[in-house]
Amino acid sequence: MWQSLRSLLSGYLKSLGVLLRSLWQGLSGRGSLVFSLFFVVLLAVLFLLGTEPGRIALTRMALMTAEEVVEGLDIETGALSSPALGSWEFERLRVDFEQENLTQAENLAVAVDLTALIRGRIDIAHVRADTLRLDNDTLTRLLETLVSEDQPPQTSEPLSLPTVRISELHIGRLHVLDERLQELPVFSVDGSASLKWPDTPGGLNLQVYEVDGSQLRLDLSASERESGAVTVELDLSEDARGFLGRLLQLPEAQALDAEAKFDLREQDSGKWQVEIGTLSLPLVEHRFALNGALNLTLSPWQVDSSGLTLEVDETRHSISGSVGDGGVDAELQLRKLPLSISRPWQDVLQGGWLSADLSVRGPLALPEVSGVIDLSTHFRQRPLRLQGRLETEEKVLTVHSANLEYADAALEASGQVDLGRETIDLEGLLAGMTVAELNELATAFTETAPLPPQLSGDVERLKVKATGPWSNPAFTAELQANPAYEAFTARLSAAVEGDLKSVKVSQLKLEGEGLSLGATGVVDIDGQTLNMKLQVAAQEFSPSEALGLSATEGLVITLDSSAVVSGPWKNLRITSDLTSSGRYRQYRYRLEGAAAGDLDKIELDRMRLELYAGEPTLAEPLSLRGPQSLILRDDEPIKGGYPPEAVAGLAAESEQLGRAGSAWLEVDGIVEPRKARADLTVSGRNIPVSLAQLAGVELPPSLEGEVSLDGELTGPFARPEGTLNLLAVGLFRREPWHLQGTIAYASGALQLSAVELVWAAENQLSAEGSIDSKTLQLDLRGRGRLADLPVDLPADIRENGSIELWATASGSPDNPELAGELVINSQRAENVRGGGEPLGLSLQWQTRGDNLELSLGASHGERQAAEADAVLEVTPLLKQLTTPRAEGEPAPPLPLRLESRGTADLSVVAAFIDPDIHALRGQLNFSLDADGTLAEPELEGGIELQDGSYEHRPTNTRLRRIDFLARLTPERWVIERARAEDGERGSINLGGEVRFAAESAPELDFRLRAEKAQLLNTPAVRGAISGNLALTGTTEASLLEGSLTLRPLTVQIEQMIGSSVPEIDVVEVEVDGPPVEKSRPFLDSIALAVQVVLDQQSYVRGLGLDSELVGTVAVEGTAAKPRAAGALRIVRGNFDLLGKRFELQEGQIQFENNVAAVYVKGRHQYTDGEIIAEISGSGDDIDITFSSTPAAAQDEIFAQLLFGKQLADISPLQAVRLVSVVRTLQGGGAAAFDPVAKTRELLGVDTLDVQSEETDEGDQYALSLGKYITNRIYIELQRSTDPLNPWEAKMQIELRRNLNLQFKSADESESGAGSVELQWKRDY
């Protein structure tokens, strides 16, 4: 830009040079020179001010100069024009300061009369802008930058107001940003003003309107009635819940309505008399008003008033006097001023009032205040009252009395503060304050409560006295308190004296039940040193009961200990002698020793803990057997046979101590905290493992035992070196365990010697060898019972099974030679299909070069179940793991390279699952290769199953001709074909894929189609499924949607109810730790939108019911927590109730939130009328009601249903049955639907029916009993009172779903041995 201006000016100057040269030739002498210079200046001024390009260039130069003068200022302009001198129009103007926007305007136009400035007047023709944005926070920073450090000298000359006229002010949208007013709305501003303008009365008109908001409106006007007299009026309004209403905390339904009117009269230059006629506005729930007169001097500033009256509702308050640069001399009188008006600025005090009669005199920096004050309010819902009287005379402030009452606490203070000599003589007394009240007061100044919530009690008395210079007063303090923590209550007393340089604690004593603590000493604040003596004593103290420390449960302490803490704060030295005794659970203990040192070095002198299990006894200790291996073996030892000599010595000494019922743990040596180093020896005998809980270690509840050890620890904390000889015995899940061996670590090498673990006698594991950065030599051996291990296999396989392991590693960590085998052997129980034959599973591995070769095999008897081989490229992975990294350096991804192949005979694999439940057939082949990293593997391969079949035997669900093929690539997993048939005419087809994207979760797209698939084949429910399902989305959020039609469907109620409830033997198993709910993240991420449709051929039969259903049930929710909702309508059918057939009139089953509610209405007709039965309810809460036409009592209805007679005609035996039925029905529940259900359960049959029939010979009865021998064979026996046919037997065999074979015995009236029927049925 500068170069463009220079070029422009250079061109004009060259032209001027030609002209001047011609003039110079015609003129000579001094006059010629003066004339030439004047002519050049005149031409420059005419160009810059007289042409628009010149004015624009001058404007841009001025803006650039402003950027140079003010550091951090950046001004950008769009199209700029200057139609006249003093007039500028900006299409866009943006001003930034320190990279933050200061202001931004659109279509800004400014016109100023520059000639008026020469006469000392400011005449602005117009200021117009469509939009104007101003950041007040950035403006404040800019003004602070512009303020000079050298302030101008104060002047007593009167400040005179300038002569100003603004003809037009218009801003379409004014947006002011201020962090203190976050919700400041956008305004529209219009106005004009004049002040001291010749021949024009002064005045002001300003209108401010809120744009698109709560209609905030401000009208400000000022008019000059006569010379020097101005009347100012203000009207302010806003709808309810607007910006100002929220700021003033007005009630939600209250609109803002404020007004003000006052008169200004200029008495002299810079001096004004102000008469406040009206000033009224709402504030919180009150009305605020101010009136009176005052005198205002602008320079030096001062305000004088003979009296201003402040009115808040019905209360009146006054202020009089003067305040200014010269000081203050004022009187303030408040008469129960409502404190709620301060709510916009503070929320600590709630409600109440303030009264005061104060006199304030002297300089503003430190005025003298005298008078009384009375405050009544609430703090944190507790009453607070403050009363005080103070007086200031000759710079001495005397507090005659100051009383603060808060709840039940009281604070009294009095004394003097000498402002001239800067000394104090004050004393205060606090009494009756609880710890909760202290916490509440503290939270007014801090974000969180400084005292823990478990701490309670009260401060009975705290007395403080301070005298001397306030820079370092001498003070004394006495404290009496009654603290409580959890269940521990105590008495606390303390006395201190000193100053801000040194404090002496002459007494500090805490005494509670079973525990006392004392301290004396000196705290040198100037020298930053400490010299304190501490004394702690305890007698039968239980930390868990008194302090709520659950980790110390069972610990009872008797203690007498002293300690001295001295030295500089940065390196305190502690010397301590400790003697303690007591009980821990079933043990008595004694702890003693000494410790001394500082942060450089702490010396531990035989810190010893001894445990005693009651009185000494000669009983055999827990499984400690002296200097032989603790692992008992039935055959040859796994590794070695005897522990090393160090462990043998441990065993011998532990046995001797165990016989005496004692144990101990001792630590001796040096700890260097600053260097993070230690040199310690640790020894222990028969230490209970439960002591680990004191250190915060969580142990299984069933784990118990004792540990003996000898060890050394030396070196830095981060890389310690040491040796540990370990021997431990105990019980886990009520079975004994043993652990022994030697573990050493030095110079980066780990050494294991005869480390052996045995549990429950037959579960054994041993380790031997060493490992460091260059060499590797490890040997691992183990064996055990499957029943003792957490493996997911059928119970009989676990009970009969065993597991063996051997593994070796040699070479180096980054290039090891690995070999090993894991073998599982078992057999199925004799009563299980395929039982008695051995089951075997083996996994072998061996390194060859850079690869680890793995082989998996499984067999059942002589048949091979599965064979698989894999090759894993292991060397690059191990090198990555063993490569050292700098501290903080992230671990790189671990490389992966795998090749695997395998086959499986599913008919043999089924023996490993449960052949009585699952039947499998088919040959499964797979190949899988993996590349990439362990975190993000890239898989490629395939899985194929040909001519497979599956049967779920308990439900008779069968799938035949299963054909499955899936292809896996790094980008997609695709199911190329997946089809199965049900063995009749139904089929299932599945297709789809999983797609992998680089930056998002895998995408799912699967489709399933079922065509008359007969998947429901239980005796209770039989039916075929047709429909389509689709699973789409991602593994993080997917949707399973579709529609399934059940057609045909048959439900046999008696098969669902069964004959009896089986008894199950329940054995309570001890579980280590609370039950943990298994996470199902994938199922939780699958949303459901499935419709189950019953449109035809859906029947419910049994127990006298024969009906057809139609309807739709929607299954929603997630796959982990599905929800069923919908309705099934009963369209036709009948049901038997109390031995009578009812024709269904209407019925519905409603599903909501996985609860099914039923409503059934049926009609039974007899000779003289009809009976209506209504069944409703859900679950076990079933209600049955009866009505009849003609109307009859309930017992009459029951008599008609049960016996076909009136109540007066029934026999005594029938009356007994009637009473039983009435009571059963009145009790409600499912039993009311079948009165003979209890009898059926007692007899152990599936069906029981009693029928009656009226004949010419009288009433005849028939009793029938039925039983399902298998799922497909049903036998029924009937006995009747008919002498011609007293007995009848039936057998029904289901050959196929729609084909039954029925055998029936012959009647006496029939010849032959009975009948055989072949029944074919079809549901429509």
TrEMBL record:
This is Translocation and assembly module TamB C-terminal domain-containing protein. Keywords: Membrane, Transmembrane, Transmembrane helix. It holds the Pfam family TamB. Residues 761-952, 977-1324 form the Translocation and assembly module TamB C-terminal domain. It is found in: Membrane. It comes from Microbulbifer aggregans. One of its GO terms (cellular component) is plasma membrane. Its main location: membrane. The chain crosses the membrane at residues 31-50. It comes from the Bacteria. GO terms for biological process: protein secretion. It is a single-pass membrane protein.
